[in-house]
Write a structure and sequence with these properties.
2,3-Dihydroxybiphenyl 1,2-Dioxygenase, domain 1, single chain, disordered N terminus, globular, 29% helix
Length: 164
């Protein structure tokens, strides 16, 4: 790459330096595992940071006035939040975190309620061909998140309110 002047070189070095540090410290797991990366726009970054900090049980790895980045191992996730006055949640979508026990769902319920987030709890309900226990909560932009454990697979798809 040929850079035309010293200002372009400084800009390149500054951007590349940031990207290099990010990938060296945050993205590479080192053992071949993959992480999911989600980038979500939000109209209220402060409230979204509070919600996702509670949902993920983690503080942002990076926090700027218009951006926050959460990096977690459980679940393996990089979640970027961008301040965007036009952000809107999709109507037919939702996101989920699978856990390995009802105790983990109960811990999520307690964490969300303690921080004042509204929750909807379903215990031993059939949804998407599985008997599950789950908690639903919505981020400040209306994105629905479920934290759930599957107790057993079923032959029945769901009840009336599955994933609603």
């Amino acid at each position: 790459m040929h850079l035309r002047n010293i200002d372009e070189r400084r800009c390149f070095d500054r951007v590349w330096g940031r990207l290099g540090r990010r990938f060296d410290k945050l993205s590479v797991t080192g053992d071949g595992r993959m992480k999911m990366h989600l980038n979500l726009g939000t109209r209220d970054l402060e409230r979204s940071v509070a919600f996702y900090g509670t949902l993920l049980g983690a503080a942002p790895a990076k926090r700027l006035p218009d951006y926050a980045l959460f990096v977690t191992e459980e679940p393996g996730l990089e979640l970027a939040l961008d301040l965007d006055a036009q952000a809107r949640a999709g109507e037919a979508e939702h996101f989920g975190i699978v856990v390995d026990s009802t105790d983990a769902v109960d811990a999520q319920i307690a964490r969300l309620e303690r921080e004042g987030f509204a929750v909807d709890v379903e215990r031993d309900e059939t949804c998407c061909y599985a008997k599950q226990t789950k908690v639903w909560a919505s981020d400040p932009d209306g994105r629905r998140w479920e934290t759930y454990v599957v107790h057993e697979e079923t032959e029945t798809r769901d009840g009336d309110a599955c994933c609603a």
